[in-house]
Amino acid sequence: MAATLTDQRFWKGTRFEFTLNPGEFNVKEHVLITIFASSGAASVYAIHMVSSTIVFYRKEVSVVVAMMVVLTTQVLGFGWAGIFRRYLVEPAAMWWPQNLVQVSLFRALHEKEERPKGGLTRNQFFLIAFICSFAYYVLPGYLFPMLTSLSWLCWIFPNSIVAQQIGSGLHGLGLGAIGFDWSSICAYLGSPLASPWFATANVAFGFVIFIYVIVPIAYWMNLYNARNFPIFSDGLFMSNGQEYNISTIIEANFHLDMEAYGSQGPLYLSTMFAMSYGIGFACLSATIVHVFLFHGREILQLSKSAFQEKKIDIHTKLMKKYYKQVPEWWFICILGINIVVTIFVCEYYNDQLQLPWWGVVLACVVGISFTLPVGVIRATTNQAPALNVITEYIIGYIYPGYPIANMLFKVYGNVSMKQAIFFLQDFKLGHYMKIPPRAMFLAQVLGTIIAALVHLVTAWWLMNSVTNICNRELLPSGSPWTCPSDHVFYDASVIWGLIGPRRIFGDLGHYSAINWFFLFGAIAPFLVWLSHKAFPNKQWIRLITVPVILGSLNEIPPATTVNYSSWVLVGFASGFVAYRYHRGWWIRHNYVLSGALDAGLAFMGVLLYLCLGMEEISLNWWGGDSDGCSLASCPTAQGVQVKGCPLY
C-alpha cells in the first residue's frame, strides 16, 4: 500500500490535512496492528455463560442482554490495568516472557540482516517454519486426527479398562501418550517455547504429582466412591455411576427443587474433577502468600515512593521522555461507566441474569484484589492462576440456588482480572517496541469491543445453525462441536450455583475435606521461602514457584493429560536442551519458531474449516479416532453397569 497509494495531501494547509499514504510500512505500525488484533484474539469468557444458559439450561437470553454482558465483561479489566501499570509494566523485573516471542518475530520480519554462511536469516527461517507448520497441520487437523493423542497402551490392551484408564491421553492418565498436534500442545498453557525452563519444570512437577500420585491414589483407594465413576471426567454423576439428570432438580422459577434433589440423591464428581477443585483452592492461597513473601517488599516500595530511579526500566524512561502518557483518569472513567452500566443491566434484566447489584460490586472487589498478585506471577513466569473457583465459591455460599447469577459473578470477577493481565502484557510489549501509549490505548479499546461483538455474533450463529451443538450423545463421531469448555462451565454452575458449595464442599456435602487444600496452599510457599532464607546460596530454591505448580493445573478439565505431557516435552527440548547445549540457535531462532508454528497453524485451521468443515466433509477411518481408548471412561467398581461399558 505504501508503494501504490497516492501521497497527495488533502485539505492542505488546514488543521484537517491528511494523506492516504503515511509512508513506508514500519515495525511500529505492525506492532499496533498486532495489539489491535490480539486485544480480542483470546476466547471471550462471557460466551460460555451465554451458551451454557441457552444450550444446556435451555433458558432464553435475549441478544441485547448477551451483548451487554459480553461488552462489559471484556472492557472492565481496563480499569484494573490502568491502576496497576506502575507495578506490572514499568519495573524491569516484570519482563513478561510471552512478549519476547513477539519482539523476536517483529525483529525477524523488519530488521535487515546478512545471511550467515551456510545458514538462514531469521526471516527466511520464519518463512520455512511457517510453510512447514501450515502444510503439516492438515494431518492432525483433518487427515489423521489420532496424531493429537497417540495412546499406545490402548492399542496393546484393547479390552482392559484399567490399562486404557492409565494410557488414554484424552480420557485417562495419559501414561506414555504423546501428541504431535501443535494446536493441542499450546491450547491451554500457551506456547511451550515461550516458557522459561524454571516455569516449565514447575508445571511438570505439579502435573506429575497431581496426575500420577494424587489422582491414582484417591481413585484406587475408592475415595468418595471414586471407582463408581470414570477416573478422568468432567461429568456429574449419581451414586450408582449414572449421569445426573440436572433438568429433574430445577423448578419452574429456575431454582433448585429441594424435594426432587432429595429423591435423586447427592451429586458426585470424578476423582480428577473433585481433586482439581482442591488444587484450585490451594492455588489461590498460595498466590497471595507467595507474592507477599517474595515480592512484598518491592510492591511496598513502589507504593510508597512511586519509583526509585535505580529500579526504573530503561524502556519506561524512554517512554516517559518521548511520549505523552495515558492519564489515569481515562481508565477510571472507563471503569466507572462500565460498573454503572453493568449494575443497570443486571438490575433491569434480573429475570434473565439473576445477579443483584451488590453481586457486581463484590465481583469487582474480588477482581481488583487478585490482579496484582496474579499479574506478578504472569509477568515473571508466563503462567497465571485463575479466579474461577474462588468466585464460584464466594457467590455460591452467599447466593445459593441461582446458577445464572453464579456464572455471571464468575465472569465479572475472573474476566476483569484476566483482561487486565492481557492489557498489561500489551502495555509491556508497547514499552519494548516504543509504541505511543495513547495510540496503543485506542487500539486496545477498539480491538476489544470489535472482537467481543464478532465473538458473540459467531456464537449466536453457531448455536442456531449447528444441529445438536454441544450434545456429545447426539453428535456424530469426530464432530468438532463437543464444546469441552462449555461443558465444564455448565457443570461448575450446577455444582456452585444450582446446588451450592455447602451441599457439596460444605457441612452438608461429602467433599468437605477438600477445603483443607486452602491451608496446604498457604503453607507450601512459606516452606519454600524458609528454605530460601536458610540456604540463600541455593538459587534454585527461589525458582520453586508454588502458584505456578498449582495454577497450571487449573486448566484440567477441560485440558487433558496429553495437552500437558506434550507441552512439557517440547518445553524441555527448548528451554533446557536447546538453551543449554545450542544457545546460539536458541537465541536466534527459538521465539521466531514459536511465532511461525502459531501462524502456520492459524492459517491452515481457517482454511480447513472454510473448505471442508463448513461443507461437513469428513473422513471415516481408524486414524480419525482422536484417541482409540473407548473403555477409558468406564468405571471399575464391582457391579456398576454403565452404557457402553462392560462389567468390571
UniProtKB/TrEMBL annotation:
Family according to the record: Belongs to the oligopeptide OPT transporter (TC 2.A.67.1) family.
InterPro entries found in the cross-reference section: Oligpept_transpt (IPR004648), OPT (IPR004813)
Pfam name, any one: OPT
Membrane-traversing stretches: 31-57, 63-84, 125-158, 170-190, 197-221, 267-294, 329-350, 356-377, 441-463, 508-528, 562-579, 591-610
Protein name: OPT superfamily
Coiled-coil zones: none
Organism of origin: Stylosanthes scabra
Top-level division of the source organism's lineage: Eukaryota
Keywords: Membrane, Peptide transport, Protein transport, Transmembrane, Transmembrane helix, Transport
Location(s), subcellular: Membrane
Keyword DNA-binding: no
Membrane topology category: Multi-pass membrane protein
